[in-house]
Amino acid sequence: MHFAKIVSSPALAATLRICLGLIFLLAATTKLLDPIYFFASILRFDFFDANFLWIVSLVLPYIELLLALCLLSGYLLFPASLLGIWLLLLFSVVLSLARIQGIDVDCGCFGPLPIFPSFFSQISRNVLMAAALGFLAYKNFPRILSQKSPPPNPEK
Fold it and tell me: How far apart (Å, rounded) are the C-alpha atoms in residues 132 and 136?
């Protein structure tokens, strides 16, 4: 099968969408089931205020859950893909800042589950997921914006 045919396949987009949705669902669920663990994980990022991190620990799992539901259902895929890319970029920047400052932290992304424990595996995961979300955003770009508008109706 040719590369162009694989990339244009609806099955590839559906598979990526479902896999990414399940990953975000796992991330959200582990944080919702153990919010104190997640808060303790991100509290180790010394360059943020504890009150701000408490709010993040309460809000972020619901954003991830909403993102997962959009990806799994196929609803609002373009904005969901952009949101996912933005979150992954933000996560990578925060992890990189911590690394630069010599802070070795687990991001708490999947709660106590030992998934992607090293800095480089976390950044690699984020890059791969962002690339897949970029592909989904491209495939679901609002076509209304790219179509020519109909000619004006002269009878009006």
Answer: 6
pLDDT digits (tens, 9 = 90+) for 87-114: 999 888 888 888 888 777 766 777 666 6
Give the tokens for residue 5: 């045919």
Say how far apart CA 1 and CA 132 lie, in whole Å.
20
> Could you give the number of structural domains in the chain?
1
* Owning domain of residue 32: 10-141
pLDDT tens readout for residues 108-122:
777 666 665 677 778
- Residue 4 included in any domain: no
Q: Mind giving me the DSSP string for 35-88? A: HHHHHHHHHT-TTS-HHHHHHHHHHHHHHHHHHHHHHHHTTTHHHHHHHHHHHH
Q: Is residue 147 part of a domain?
A: no
Distance from C-alpha of 118 to C-alpha of 122, rounded to nearest angstrom? 6
Which amino acid does the sequence have at 27? Answer: A
* Residue that the structure tokens 């196929």 belong to: 74
| pTM tops 0.85 | no
N-to-C CA span, the chain: 52
Structure tokens at 108: 């708490």
Instruction: Answer whether residue 112 is part of any domain.
Output: yes
